[in-house]
Amino acid sequence: MASSLAADLLVLLHLAFIVFVVLGGLLVWRWWRVVFLHLPASVWGVLLEFNGWQCPLTPLEQQLRVAAGEAGYSGGFIAHYLLPVIYPAGLTPAFQVALGTGALLINLVIYGWLLLGKRPMLK
User: Fold this and answer.
1) How large is the greatest C-alpha to C-alpha distance in the chain, in angstroms?
2) Total-model pTM
3) Cα dist. 81→8, 73, 77, 113 in Å?
4) For every residue of the chain, which 3-state class applies, written as one string?
5) CB under 8 Å to 70, separation ≥6 — which residues?
6) Which of 1, 68, 121, 122 has the fewest beta carbons closer than 10 A?
């Protein structure tokens, strides 16, 4: 039971990290010091996608599932949890690069907006 709960909490943490990587720049508008967490997280997230690396949270979650007597799964977090919901096709290397590019572009727009002085707090 504890391993299953830990795996479920890890899934939520994983999802929160992905949302933070993609949209965390918006938090910088309100709390500028978040930039010191968001930029490294974004670089890590984009590197994972561009290089086809597996996030270290994925094998940990799989181990917790197996320890709880549940079936593990093959592939990564995005392919297992998000793609079946959002995209009908499997995760290909080209699509993985597209995800990384999307995250990068979203953050470039947000930080560009901030650096161009659209946010009075940062002037």
Assistant:
1) 54
2) 0.70
3) 12, 10, 6, 32
4) CHHHHHHHHHHHHHHHHHHHHHHCHHHHHHCHHHHHHHHHHHHHHHHHHHHCCCCCHHHHHHHHHHHCCCCCCCCCHHHHHHHHHHCCCCCCHHHHHHHHHHHHHHHHHHHHHHHCCCCHHHC
5) 4, 7
6) 1
Instruction: Work out how many domains the chain is built from and give that number.
Output: 1
Dihedral of CA 21/24/25/26: which sign?
positive
What would the pLDDT profile of 42-89 be if each residue is shown by its tens digit?
Answer: 999 989 888 878 888 888 888 888 898 877 666 666 656 665 654 545
Rounded distance, CA 62 to CA 64, Å? 5
Q: How far apart are CA 55 and CA 121, in angstroms?
A: 34
Give the type of residue at 20: F
Q: How many residues does the chain have?
A: 123
33-44: pLDDT as tens digits: 999 999 999 999
As a dihedral over the C-alpha atoms of residue 77, residue 80, residue 86, residue 90, rounded to 10 degrees, the angle is: 110
